[in-house]
Structures are given as structure tokens and as C-alpha cells.
Design a protein that fits this description.
This is Protein ENHANCED DISEASE RESISTANCE 2. It holds the Pfam family EDR2_C. With 193 residues, the protein is of the alpha+beta class. It has one domain. Helices cover 20% and strands 37% of the residues. The strands form two sheets. A six-stranded mixed β-sheet has the order 6-7-2-3-1-10. A four-stranded antiparallel β-sheet has the order 5-4-8-9. The longest helix has 13 residues.
């Protein structure tokens, strides 16, 4: 369990897609939650698109929303409108295997990972959203770990916390942007898109 107070953003939805090729810019797809009339009225949406290399490939897409406009001078505001290098140095994920085989728990660990330093992240900033496409296949280590996880995914429960890493004293404490619990995900339930 990751403890850190209430998240700044609210989880709206999670999509689980099956695709032949890597799928970037999910938020621009006409059937994306971001393109709905209700979502267009939200002040801000953060889209995390975890691209899982497999046969077929999968995309785990998480949508988080702000209830009010984001302060441009806040850490989140600077992250949203920052450069890719700024984002890469700060975009952090903390995994926790709540239930699962010890081998998977050991491989995944519980240490925070700066995703922009470990794998390739592409950022799409438009209108009221920021999408982060996380290419897990861009790292042989990450690809190996996700391959192991996929073998046991129907029997594990994973908590994920998403943060922006503080680099200066004035940015502390770090706040959790969003969380999600993935409970025994079935690869066969992925929707083709």
C-alpha cells in the first residue's frame, strides 16, 4: 500500500486496449474519453498510456481529472506546461504488488521509478489535457519485468501511485497525483481498437 494522502487528481476511468502496433495519442482518438462532451468541460485531464509490449500489444490507459483549474505556478502546473526534459526528470510511478507470487513481487519491487529516465515517454499537450505515452518496450529491463507480470496478471493485484518528483525544498512535500488498483486483469478482456 502506498500512503501519501488523498490524490490531487480523481481517477475517471481506465481503458484496457488490445492493438497490433504501438498506440500513441489515445486522447485524440474519436472514441476516447477525452473527446467526450463531459470531458471537454473539465479543467484538466491527465492521461497515462502504459504501452505494454506483447503479442498482441496492450495499452492500459488511465484518465485523471482536476476538479478546478490547475495553478500555473504549482509543481503540477509547471509539469503540465514544462519541457519534455523537465517532465522526464520528474514523472514518477510507485508500484506495489498487493497480492501475487513472490517472484513477481521481487521483480516489480516497491521503489519509485522515474519513468522518463527508465523508458521512453512521449508527451502530448493540447487543450485541457496532457497525455503521457509510456513505451515500456523501449527498455529491455522493463520489457522483461512486464513479460513476467503478464504471465501472472490474472492472479495479481497491483497498486500504482503517480507523482511528480520534487527537486527543490519549496516543492516538498510531494503529492500523489493519482492512484489505481489493478485487480487480476484479464488480457482477454482487452478491447480491440
Amino acid at each position: 500500500m502506498v500512503v501519501g494522502g488523498d490524490p490531487l487528481l480523481e481517477l475517471l476511468a481506465v481503458d484496457w486496449f488490445k492493438v497490433n502496433e504501438r498506440f500513441d495519442s489515445v486522447a485524440l482518438h474519436p472514441k476516447s474519453l477525452v473527446q467526450s462532451e463531459a470531458a471537454k468541460k473539465l479543467p484538466f485531464i491527465l492521461v497515462i498510456n502504459l504501452q505494454v509490449p506483447a503479442k498482441p500489444n496492450y495499452n492500459l490507459v488511465m484518465y485523471y481529472a482536476a476538479e478546478r483549474p490547475v495553478n500555473k505556478d504549482s509543481l503540477l502546473g509547471r509539469f503540465i506546461d514544462g519541457t519534455d526534459a523537465y517532465r522526464d526528470a520528474r514523472f514518477k510511478l510507485i508500484p506495489s504488488i498487493v497480492e501475487g507470487y513472490w517472484m513477481v513481487k521481487r521483480a516489480v519491487g516497491t521503489k519509485a521509478c522515474l519513468l522518463g529516465k527508465a523508458v521512453t515517454c512521449n508527451y502530448l499537450r493540447q487543450d485541457n489535457f496532457l497525455e503521457i505515452d509510456v513505451d515500456i518496450g523501449s527498455s529491455s529491463v522493463a520489457r522483461s519485468i512486464i513479460g513476467l507480470v503478464l504471465g501472472y496478471v490474472t492472479s495479481i493485484v497491483v497498486d500504482l501511485a503517480i507523482l511528480i518528483e520534487a527537486k527543490e525544498e519549496k516543492e516538498l512535500p510531494e503529492y500523489i497525483l493519482g492512484t489505481v488498483r489493478l485487480n487480476r486483469v484479464n488480457p482477454d478482456s482487452a478491447v480491440s481498437i
